[in-house]
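FW: tagging you since you asked about this chain on Friday. Here's the raw sequence from the shared folder, copied in full. Didn't touch anything.
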Amino acid sequence: MNLKHRITEDMKQAMRDKASARLSTIRLLLAAIKQREVDERIALDDAQVLAVIEKMVKQRRESIVQFEKGGRPDLVAIEQNELALLLGYLPAQMSDVEIMPLISAALAQTGAAGPADMGKVMALLKPQLAGRADMGKVSALVRSKLSN
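HL: got it, structure written out here
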C-alpha cells in the first residue's frame, strides 16, 4: 500500500473513531499533498509525499518554538500532537552512528576539503537521507567534519 493511500485510510478511520484532532491533522496533510499535485500537475509518489510530510514537520517544529517564546502552552500542545501524528508517517530516523559512514563516503566521493564544499556534500547526501534523518542535524555533522 502506498503512503498516500495509507493516509487516506487513516483519515477514514479517524472519521469512524470521531477523533477530531487527528482527523483535522490528516486533512491538512492530504490538502497539502493535493495542493502540490494540482500545482505541479502530477500524481505524487511516496518520495514526494514524504517531502510534503517533512516540510509540515519542519513547520510544526518552528511553530512550537515560536509559541513557547510567546507563552502559549495551549498552542504548543496542539502543534506537538500534530507533529507526533506526522512523524508516524516518516520512516524510522537514522542515528548519528548510522549517518557518519555516509558522510565519510560523501566527503571522499566529492573530495571536499573545507566548509566551502558543504553544498556538494549535502547535495550528495540529501537523496540518500531524505525522510530518514533530520537534514539540519546532518548539516551540523557535515559542518563539524569539514571544519576538522
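FW: The mean pLDDT is 91.
HL: agreed, and The domain at 3-87 is CATH 1.10.1510.10 (Hypothetical Protein Yqey; Chain: A; domain1).
FW: great, closing this out.
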